[in-house]
Amino acid sequence: MLAQQLLNGLVVSGVYALFSLGFTLVFGIQRILNLAHGAVFMTGAMVAYYTVDGGGPLWLAFILAIIVSGCLSVLVEITCFRRLRKTGDEEFGGVVSSIGAGLVITTIAQQISSTQILRFPFETFPVVIFRFWDLRVSMLQLFMAGAALVMVLILGYLFYKTAFGRRVRAVTDNERAATLMGINPNRIYMQTYFLAGALAGAAGVLVGLAFNSISFVMGEPYMMFGFAIIILGGLGSIPGALLASVIFGMVQTLTIAYLPSGLTDTIIFAALFLILLVRPHGLLGQEDAGNLGGRR
Amino acid sequence: MSNFIAGYLPLFDLYCLHVGLALSQFIVLRAGVFSLATAAFAGIGAYTAGILAVDLGAHPVLGVLCGTLMGMLVAMVLSIPLARLRGVYQAIATVAFIQICLSLNIYSESITGGAMGLNNIPKTVGTGTLFVFAALATYMIWAIEKGRLGRAFNTIRQDEAVAASLGISIRKHQMLAFAISGALAGLFGSLEAYHSYAIDPRQFGFHLLITVLSYVIFGGRNSVIGPLAGAAFLIILPELARPLAENRMVIYGIMLILVINFMPKGVADTAIDAIKARRLTAKRGDSA
Asked: Are A96 and B91 within 8 A, CB to CB?
């Protein structure tokens, strides 16, 4: 039983990792908390649904979802944040204008889906269940875990092994210095937002498949969990977000399995609150984050 | 004519309630605290007052008083840990606080009525009371603004190091801002409970946070007129644009983006600045 729960937790962790990597990527590079990220995630699921609904195959739906949510994320960057960065008010202003973007996207999605909960047709994804030892694993779970792993590996490769990754890290460290080295920061930002949106969209499709329920509000709980994850891992830290996703997925699965069901959220957010107070820079974040406790 | 007024009375009630909440959000932002906890304090106030009235049959005055005090108390306690955080971190912590309140509220069904909410609250608060309280709250914030406290808040918001060097205790003042914010939110939360027969937990969640925050951002964060104008505009606009009612949230969202990008001070504050600038140039013209 415990092993089964841990396995389920690991699969859930993969989805959380996809969602929160984009979230933390954007914060790391721009110090902006992108509250429209949940809406982008939901868009991914919606696009996949309507592709399948229109008769397209699932692989096409997956690719379309990734591309559309990536582009949407870039659009959010251009419309909401580009101007704010110039005025230097992006910390406060970014929160507000991304709340605005999230409202616009979810309301449009609400109208398109006429406030319905959408479901993929039966057997969109083949229901196959493997058993080994005492554990049950469905094909879908394997696919989710596999997809998450592949995407995280691709991101890691892009980030730490390519010229693109070096440019991104340069801009993160110091935008001005990077500009002097001939890097166009706006282009890097657009590419980063595309990656972040694409990952969120992929997570949206996986969640949509796993729970077979897609609605315009599905992004909101993931936003909240995303907060908890990127804070726990340290805002802006990629390895931190990965580690925190695994911890978070496990803890959530276990609390749902073994504790009174209504208390799961309370425990998670109380933990988030405490982590913020004790270690605001998270498990693997940098020291400079947010905490001014000793300076007064 | 009386029909016309009666038709718009509920809108005016809503305006009075939301002005109170907007002022509660305004005062913390004024003091340089990025707290979004107003929705949670309002919920605490509303539930305190509602439970007192339904379970104990308490007098509304006692209920409102307890709701206000409870909001203030919780806000003061919350301000102690939050003093360690700044900026986005404070915002996230307060959002987490809202979520904790929400899920605890749903979980403790025997006391709060859970997800079904609290029903059968006697309606004892009318338009007159709401208006009086909204006016009082506005006056109080205006008075704070004009006095020493307002100047202290300004200094803290603009530069904490300077404030500390001038002998302004940041911790104390931010706790004070929290206390005022919590008391106002608790007050108007409990008024809402006595005004609307029933309350439910979702009413005091993320949605209220966004609504109240947009009033302040839209109107302006520097003078009392900001939240008043913001709430008026954002409440009346959807009524004027009835055909667009379905797209109301789209309009809200687009306006948030436009205002924060092109008028970061808010509509009212930008207008005030423009008037001041014009007066200044006019005066110069006279003396020359």
From this structure: no
Residues in chain B with pLDDT values less than 50: none
- Is residue B232 situated within a structural domain? no
- Distance between CA atoms of residues B72 and B77, nearest Å: 9
Domain count, chain B: 1
In a domain, B8, yes or no: yes
Is B190 a domain residue?
yes
pLDDT per position as a tens digit, B101-137: 888 888 887 877 777 878 878 888 888 888 999 999 9
Three-state SS at A130: strand
The whole-model pTM stands at 0.83
Spatial CA neighbour of B117 closest among B188, B204, B36: B204
Nearest CA in chain A to B170: A296
The nearest CA of chain B is from the CA of A167 a distance in Å of 26
Give the residue from A282, A186, A180 showing the smallest Cα distance to A227: A282
Q: Between chains, do A266 and B34 touch, taking CB under 8 Å as contact?
A: no
User: What residues 108-147 of chain B have any CB closer than 8 A to a CB of chain A?
Assistant: none
Determine the 3-state secondary structure of B144 from DSSP.
helix
d(CA B237, CA A97) in angstroms, rounded, equals: 19
B9 part of a folded domain: yes
- Give the Å distances, CA to CA, from B231 to B36, B160, B213, B215: 17, 30, 10, 5
**pLDDT tens for each residue of B183-226:** 999 999 999 888 888 888 888 888 888 889 888 888 888 888 88
Q: A95, A113, A279: best mutation site toward chain B, by most B Cβ within 10 Å?
A: A95
Q: Report the alpha-carbon distance of residue A159 to residue A137 in Å, rounded.
A: 32
So where are chain A's domains?
13-218
Q: Which domain holds residue B61?
A: 2-219
> What is the per-residue burial (b if ≥16 Cβ within 10 Å, else e) of A25-53?
bbbbbbbbbbbbbbbbbbbbbbbbbbbbe
